[in-house]
Amino acid sequence: MKGQEWYQADDVAEEYDDKRFSQGGQLIDRREKRAVLEAIEPLEDRRVLEIACGTGRFTTMIADRGADVVGLDISAAMLQQGREKARAAGVSDRLEFLRGDAGRLPFPDDHFDTVIAMRFFHLADDPEAFLSEMRRVSSDQIVFDTFNRYSARSVYNWALPMGSRLYSKSEVSVLLAKTDLTLVDVEDDFIVPYGLYRSIPNVLASSIRSVDRVIGRSTVGDHLASVSYWDTRVR
């Protein structure tokens, strides 16, 4: 997986949330959380695994809504941030953080109802293998996001620290077919790429986001969106 050493650095973990989800990045955080909740609720007593859970943005939220959650990440520093976040939210009893490799999940077949992976597949060197492993441990649902090849993100992708894997809709469709997953829904969003939102104040980001939504609802919106949220079911 791309960027393993970078993500495991202590200083990256300490600054991760502030750099990505402060200022205009708060808009991204809210949208991603809404996409996840719309796909996986209701959550009461469901068993959920999050791949590449990082600092626990989603795991803490999901546990707070009644699920039993496991967050898995390769970074010990990120996991420590997640544990502190879970304690502060009072959900440590419903949430376990494990260090592990997403390519070799330490769980039996069909162990979870739902498996999610946000901000993960753009770093995957072998997306089919990772998705197959997620499919193995899920009895019902897999939710993930991708950055889109034909979008504004492709313009600056080369400048990112480890780059990103960008996907076309047809490529993801092939991945789903190969891993025996059925598409339930896909939502496309953010004509303006994430990087711009993160770098500007909330007031300005909110104005740009309003225009972004209008374009996104137009006939060209699906073709220009930089992000897609995929909700799939196990066949």
TrEMBL record:
The keyword Kinase belongs to this UniProt entry's keyword annotation: no
GO molecular function annotations of the record: methyltransferase activity
Keyword annotations: Methyltransferase, Transferase
Official protein name in the record: Class I SAM-dependent methyltransferase
GO BP terms in the entry: methylation
CDD domains, A to Z: AdoMet_MTases
InterPro entries: Methyltransf_25 (IPR041698), SAM-dependent_MTases_sf (IPR029063)
Domain of life per record: Archaea
Domain Methyltransferase: 48-137
PANTHER family per record: METHYLTRANSFERASE (PTHR43591)
UniProt cross-references to Pfam families, sorted A to Z: Methyltransf_25 (PF13649)
